[in-house]
Design brief:
This protein is of the alpha/beta class. The protein is built from four helices and five strands; from the N terminus they run E-H-E-H-E-H-E-H-E. 34% of the residues lie in helices and 21% in strands. The longest helix is centred in the N-terminal third of the chain and has 16 residues.
């Protein structure tokens, strides 16, 4: 099994990029790859319960559905701790499957041989 990190740095500010990131993450986990989504910068907002409600990029499934299907398929979501703090977002308000981490956890995953793409 391979490893893939999909780093998503956008949310409402570029819903197209955020959505495509989760489309690729879903394809990866469906292909039996160990898949991690790393949410940073504005992307951390996608980990907050209720934020993705109603967000829908034309031509794709709603991003809330993409996030939920990714987690149900066994994908992992890491959320950048400093990015959450900078935006004043509460740690306890996360969607299912999301974990707040520092940069060392991402480095650990990448150092174990994961490829990484960024949206």
């Amino acid at each position: 099994m391979g490893k893939l990190c999909v780093s998503i740095t956008h949310s409402k500010n570029d819903l197209d990029k955020a959505t495509v990131g989760f489309v690729v993450a879903n394809a990866s986990v469906a292909s039996a790859q160990e898949t991690l989504v790393f949410l940073s910068i504005e992307g951390v907002r996608l980990a907050v319960k209720g934020f993705a409600d109603g967000l829908h990029e034309e031509g794709f499934a709603p991003i809330k559905d993409l996030i939920e299907s990714f987690v149900k398929a066994g994908g992992t979501i890491y959320v950048c701790s400093p990015c959450m703090k900078k935006r004043g977002l509460a740690d306890e308000a996360l969607v299912e499957g999301a974990t707040i981490v520092g940069g060392a956890k991402l480095v650990e995953f990448l150092a174990a041989g994961a490829a990484c793409i960024t949206y």
